[in-house]
Amino acid sequence: MRTKSKPSKPRKLPIAHRDGIAPVSQSAEYALRVMTCLARGDQIARTATDLAIEATVPVHYLSKVLRRLVAAGLLSSQKGHGGGFVLARAPSQIRFADVLGAMGEAPVGGRCAFGWGKCDAKAPCPLHPAWTVLSEALQAWAGKTTLADVAAAAPQKRRKRRG
Amino acid sequence: MRTKSKPSKPRKLPIAHRDGIAPVSQSAEYALRVMTCLARGDQIARTATDLAIEATVPVHYLSKVLRRLVAAGLLSSQKGHGGGFVLARAPSQIRFADVLGAMGEAPVGGRCAFGWGKCDAKAPCPLHPAWTVLSEALQAWAGKTTLADVAAAAPQKRRKRRG
DNA sequence: CGGTTTATGGACATCGTGGTCTATTGATGG
DNA sequence: CCATCAATAGACCACGATGTCCATAAACCG
Q1: Which CATH number among 2.60.40.10, 3.40.190.80, 1.10.10.10, 1.10.260.40 corresponds to the domain B26-152?
Q2: Model-level pTM?
Q3: Nearest by CB to B145, which of A19, A130, A138?
């Protein structure tokens, strides 16, 4: 075993690391955050600034995300005084998959994880079975979870009902 | 110098899209590819160039990935004529989680998807339950799948299996 | 021993994502 | 009508992940 390879100089390699196995991009995560915020409130218009604060997202960047969600038909927007963003459908009718899809995060599956151009059940790459398991788990999650689920969960603040 | 004005490029929205819900980084995928290649062959040393061709990975970039895998103790390396890389353990003893961990892809969970600093079962963010489901699915997948699984699956060449 | 083969280590160059900023358009209210 | 608010649009920049290249070290072969 000649792999002594003494690590006397523990220089870090340029291969960075993300915050773990990031299932979605940062933009997509922002989208889910803001959609969650909207689902948890009343159906009144919320401004981008307002949402950015609550969702802890850079304001100007969020506007781009919101634009995408509007273009995808998940949000309605209203300009001018009193305007803002509202969910286009009921929270129970908006799946995570819809939000991710609006952000360009297609539900996996299109690309061969092994680098092969074509990869299907007939001519599977070595990683195909394992990747299929992962892909199906992700799709099941994104397809089943809706905004209604996250709206119901974990109230952010104690909203005391007056009277 | 990036002051080369690159006009005429119809940059839609700056929110790019990856090849779907990419569960791992490109580097981590490369690592899984090359580890799969090694698991599928005999335990003879394979050169980086050889592996790069089979795994369809840029040669020089792969060398960095291989370095990481060696540093993590998943691979053994041998310099000089006849040298190359070999799995440090049996394929059944190398989980995907090990490979991902070597590439810096920690098994999720550390960061709050909603942007909160702290986020646990006691004070969960709205996304916490949904994210927990996702996180556990990913961890289960990465923890259960081993190189032996992908080595057995989908023989690239016809090879008689014993037993 | 020198020469070849291989891994090792790092210096760049490049590109996409994330993030900031400014201008414009549209709606509302006085 | 004008002032103001807020969405829309896109230019622009920073930075990290990706990818290329080259020098060096180590192991083997003659």
Answers
A1: 1.10.10.10
A2: 0.83
A3: A130
